[in-house]
Amino acid sequence: MESEWTMFKASIVDAAARSCGRKVIGACRGGNPRTRWWTPEVREAVKLKKETFKAWLAQGSPEAADRYRQARRAAAAVVANAKTRAWEEFGEAMEKDFRLASRRFWQTIRRLRKGKQGLPQAVLSRGGGPADPDGGHRRAVERAL
């Protein structure tokens, strides 16, 4: 019975993932707190850029387009500066603690190579949130059998 349920569940989850899509879970809303460069300053610049983009879509005027272009350039500059600062701080930390520098360097390299491969994924429900594949369906199938 358990192996049949496992096969049934796997096929249902696979079909749901193909039709509904998958969503990466584990990263918080509003940015990834694991990156050192995602600061409140960067968050505000990106937020302003998104707001001006929505205003440009709503208005469609050339002035709104110009405001969006300026906000986009400003956000890109803030992000570039924040990333540069983060890498400079990383280099300074490597210089300070030379005993652990090799270990910290390779940990960082492995994390950067890995990217988002390790983040868990969930099937989306109708509302857009993660769906619960066992949420009552198992009991319904067992009653039907």
Automatic annotation (TrEMBL):
Residues 117-145 are annotated as: Disordered. It comes from the Eukaryota. Residues 134-145 have a biased composition (Basic and acidic residues). This is Uncharacterized protein.
